[in-house]
């Protein structure tokens, strides 16, 4: 892949850095495109891989800035009864102004 706005000293386009993560189901789960002038952040790439693996295995999502060991969010498609069975270690329900109990955190 080339970045048409990035040129070398001879005026030729400079390749950009692309990263694609493909899941076991052979679908693209993530695509990063870095300009040639920007280095890749390997910590972020590993964080994303950890997040994708947890989401696929446990029906959870990871919040912004999540790191390995931090709580994850239980999918809203999982009922409280299912959550009790799936997460026997327990979970915490966020106290929302609406008093709805859909935002639940657990550790996996």
Please give a quick description of this structure.
By secondary structure, the protein is of the alpha+beta class. It has helices at 42-58, 80-86; strands at residues 2-7, 13-15, 17-22, 28-34, 60-61, 72-74, 92-93, 104-106.
Architecture blueprint of SSEs:
Elements: E1 2-7, E2 13-15, E3 17-22, E4 28-34, H1 42-58, E5 60-61, E6 72-74, H2 80-86, E7 92-93, E8 104-106
Antiparallel strand pairs: 1-2, 3-4, 5-6, 6-8, 7-8
Radius of gyration equals 19 Å
Secondary-structure-based class equals alpha+beta
Largest sheet, if any? 4 strands, antiparallel
What is the CA-CA span between the terminal residues?
A: 37 Å
Query: Judging by the overall fold, what is the CATH architecture of the largest domain?
Result: 2-Layer Sandwich
CATH homology superfamily name of the largest domain = Antioxidant, Horf6, Chain A, domain2
The CATH topology of the largest domain is Antioxidant, Horf6, Chain A, domain 2
**Overall residue-averaged pLDDT value:** 91
- Number of β-strand runs: 8
Low-confidence stretches: none
H-E order: EEEEHEEHEE
- Largest sheet, order of strands side by side? 5-6-8-7
Overall outline: elongated
The fraction of residues in strands falls at 25-35%
Domain Peroxiredoxin C-terminal: 52-89
Enzyme class: oxidoreductase
Keywords: Oxidoreductase
Protein name: thioredoxin-dependent peroxiredoxin
């Amino acid at each position: 892949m080339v970045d048409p706005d990035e040129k070398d000293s001879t005026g030729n386009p400079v390749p950009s850095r692309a990263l694609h993560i493909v899941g076991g189901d052979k679908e693209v789960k993530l695509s990063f495109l870095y300009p040639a002038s920007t280095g890749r952040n390997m910590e972020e790439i590993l964080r994303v891989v950890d997040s994708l693996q947890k989401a696929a295995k446990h029906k959870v999502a990871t919040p912004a800035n999540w790191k390995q060991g931090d709580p994850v969010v239980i999918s809203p498609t999982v009922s409280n009864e299912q959550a009790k069975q799936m997460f026997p270690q327990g979970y915490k329900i966020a106290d929302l102004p609406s008093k709805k109990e859909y935002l639940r955190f657990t550790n996996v």
